[in-house]
Design brief:
The two termini are about 40 Å apart. Helix 8 (about 235-260) packs antiparallel against helix 9 and helix 18 (about 570-575) crosses helix 22. About 40% of the residues are buried. The protein is elongated, with a radius of gyration of 31 Å. The protein is of the alpha/beta class and about 750 residues long. The chain contains 25 helices and 26 strands.
Length: about 750
């Protein structure tokens, strides 16, 4: 039995250790926390692998030392397999033998702006690389990306049929020589400009430090290649000569730096005269050093005594104008109330929808900073310089006017797709990488679609959470059943669970969905955080003839309101001629001409007077998931409500007696008219609703578990209990089998 030392206890290191242990070998896993799989033949050691002396001590006498450490691959278990499958699929489709991706290059201390290896035309589409291209693009200080940094996957059959192997004499550049040998043997190399490999430059790394001894070894290897190549390969030999010349320049540059550091000014001048091409490189190096110093200075200027929380979102959040925005802002308020700085980062200009601007309400003052890609800020305005947005915004206004006047029955111009479900672009990923690291001690993804951005924050040390809002994959069947438009995505239940599972913890807005997600993801931490209410002092019966609907332009609201107006309103007017319906919110933009007695009010900043005067609030929803935030809001105002079974989804046990439920048009109309005619009944129903709101939807009961989780994660990085539920929920959940 021999000794094997593995550095890194991640998915790769643990799997390798178990394989060796099952073979009867003794394995020592070295990691910062001393973690790893439990096995009689596996020894777990807590140590810093960058400590050369300590690692040497641990590896003394070992048959092999395995480097499985890769800090930025903290999510390899979920992220690497699909990436590997994508590469292999690309290789199979294209006939490539070697497939490489793009690198996101960054400093572990965030001392410079993260950047990709491929830029400009190189990043627009996949491209093939010949042996000549590979040589040309590995010339130091040359034009184009240095492809030797690419970490490719290689077809196994190619290696089996080829004698090319790594040059063990090289500490740096060994990948370049190996791939070049394969290309000369006829291999086909495809580069896919996909940011999948996180290349961290850190103080212990040698791969990006070109010292004279390292460069001389590179040159010797290249010279040996040139001697072996036949004279007939003139084009390749010429490219190799230019590569060797670039190495000579790099050697001279290293000599120049050494003389400057030693303040040997005459020696530095002699080197510069002997090799003038070192001067442009010196200017470039000084620029890079200045940039790093400025980055460190900015980091020092920020208040690092206060922990930073970054919310990644693609919602069009301008204030508490709809349920999902109100919920997000409530969570931000709860975190800020702990004394942490909260930041809003939107990686895409699609957040603006069709409009060329966002105008923020005072609600967004909770955020220490707000950044939206593709915009500039002017006071409370975020403005896009893209002219096409001004055109699309004008067409949206034309649409709304024609619908309101009855010229058209539905929108003529196509709306922009829902921004929350759009695929991440390369520009989105780079935006997060450049703006998130300094403000991401804790990361929150708004909706499951943004969990893909979490690695691009470049903070493997940070804990993360994802806000569900609702179970999106359930929408498709519901929406198609009533011919309503939904999210333009074919998200399946499995897809959604996989996306949710990429975060450390999952924030569910209601109990029913939390239980289902816990069943699907039993090893994840599920925190239930319903929308918290601000209950009024007492019920508000309102006026005997006023009905109110409040909602955004989301598909469930548009469908429900259309159903009510088409099927219930005439019945109500016949039974109660003085009835009036007020429609508040952006839902009005999607409605056609309204019948008599209906008033479309648009976006209302302060809904308090409308709630006060309304006799009955209606929630005629036929589709949707999650928690109906406007239901909680109306109940907190002490209002009587008529809704559907869908309105109460997920909160049936808590609010069953708080509203009247009717799913058929005649029953719905009867319930509304019955309340309009009976002020005392409205008061009793409003009072019951307030009782339930105070019992189940207080600020502490809704957000307490989440804020404690965030505080614990930021205080010590400890792992709180896997599932945290509001107090009144835990008894209900005892029968649930995890």
């Amino acid at each position: 039995m021999s000794e094997h030392v593995i550095v890194g206890a991640g998915a790769v290191g643990s799997a390798a250790a178990l394989l060796l242990a099952e073979r009867g070998e003794h394995v020592r896993i070295v990691s910062r926390r001393g973690s790893g799989p439990e096995h009689p033949a596996i020894e777990l050691v807590a140590a810093d692998a960058t400590d050369a002396e300590r690692l040497t001590e641990l590896a003394t006498g070992a048959a092999a030392l395995y480097n499985c450490a890769s800090p930025l691959y903290h999510q390899w278990f979920t992220d690497w397999p699909p990436l590997a499958r994508a590469f292999l699929a690309a290789a199979e489709r294209s006939g490539a033998d070697i497939v490489g991706d793009d690198l996101l290059i960054f400093d572990g201390n965030h001392g410079f702006r993260p950047k990709p290896l491929l830029t400009g035309a190189w990043a627009r589409r996949p491209f093939w690389v010949s042996a000549y291209d590979y040589l040309r693009l590995n010339r130091l200080y040359g034009r184009g990306p240095i492809l030797g940094y690419v970490k490719p996957v290689i077809r196994a059959s190619l290696l089996a049929a080829n004698s090319a192997r790594y040059n063990e004499a090289l500490w740096v550049g060994e990948d370049y020589h190996f791939v070049l040998a394969l290309l000369r043997a006829g291999a086909k190399f495809l580069i896919v400009p996909q940011l999948s490999y996180f290349y961290r430059k850190h103080t212990a790394s040698v791969s990006h430090r070109l010292r004279a001894d390292t460069l001389q070894a590179l040159k010797a290897a290249d010279v040996a290649l040139s001697r072996d190549w036949p004279i007939s390969e003139r084009r390749l030999r010429a490219a190799l000569e230019r590569r060797i010349q670039s190495v000579d320049i790099a050697v001279a540059f290293d000599h120049l730096l050494n003389r400057l550091r030693a303040r040997n000014w005459p020696g530095a001048v002699r080197v510069a005269f002997a090799c003038p091409k070192t001067l442009p490189r010196l200017v470039s190096a000084l620029g890079e050093r200045t940039g790093r110093m400025l980055s460190r200075f900015k980091a020092m200027q920020s208040n690092r005594d206060v922990r930073q929380v970054c919310i990644l979102s693609r919602q069009r959040v301008v204030g508490r104008t709809n349920g999902s925005s109100a919920y997000l802002l409530d969570l931000a308020d709860a975190i800020a109330g702990l004394g942490f700085d909260v930041h809003f980062l939107s990686p895409t200009p699609k957040t603006l929808g069709r409009w060329p601007y966002l105008s923020l309400f005072d609600d967004l003052s909770v955020f220490r900073s707000i950044k939206i890609r593709g915009t500039f800020r002017l006071g409370r305005w975020f403005i896009s310089p893209d002219p096409s947005r001004f055109i699309r915004g004008t067409l949206a206004i034309v649409d709304a006017v024609m619908m309101r006047t009855g010229l058209i029955s539905k929108a003529f111009f196509k709306k922009d797709p829902y921004s929350i479900a759009q695929s991440l672009t390369r520009a989105d990923q780079l935006f997060v990488a450049r703006h998130a690291p300094q403000i991401s001690d804790f990361l929150i993804a708004d909706y499951c679609f943004l969990t893909d951005t979490l690695p691009f924050a470049l903070r493997p040390d940070a804990r993360s959470a994802v806000i569900m809002h609702d179970f999106i994959s359930s929408r498709r069947g519901q929406f198609s059943a009533v011919s309503a438009p939904g999210l333009e995505t074919s998200l399946t239940e499995d897809d959604e669970c996989e996306m949710l599972g990429r975060a450390d913890s999952i924030l569910a807005i209601q109990w029913e969905e939390a239980k289902f997600i816990q069943y699907r993801l039993p090893n994840h931490q599920i925190i239930v955080a319903p929308f918290a209410a601000r209950p009024a002092d007492g019920p508000q019966p309102g006026q005997d003839d006023r009905i109110l609907f409040v909602g955004s332009a989301a598909a469930p609201n548009v469908d429900g309101l259309n159903w009510f107006v088409s099927n219930c309103w005439q019945i109500i007017k016949t039974m109660h001629p003085r009835a009036k319906l007020d429609i508040a919110g952006t839902v009005g933009r999607s409605m056609g001409p309204m019948p008599p007695g209906v008033s479309v009010m648009g976006l209302v900043k302060d809904l308090t007077p409308l709630y006060r005067d309304a006799g009955v609030i209606i929630s005629p929803l036929r589709i949707g998931s999650g928690l109906k935030v406007k239901l909680i809001e109306a109940l907190s105002h002490g209002k009587s409500i008529v809704g559907t079974a869908r309105t109460l989804q997920g909160v049936e046990e808590q609010l069953a007696d708080a509203i009247l439920v009717a799913d058929e048009s005649q029953c719905f109309a009867d319930a509304v008219v019955g309340l309009l005619r009976d002020r005392e009944a409205r008061a009793r129903l409003g009072s019951r609703g307030l009782d339930q709101i105070r019992a189940h939807f207080s600020h502490e009961n809704c957000y307490g578990a989440f804020t404690r989780h965030v505080a614990s994660a930021l205080a010590s990085g400890s792992d709180p209990s896997r599932t945290q539920l509001p107090q009144d929920q835990r008894a209900t959940d005892r029968a649930f089998t995890r």
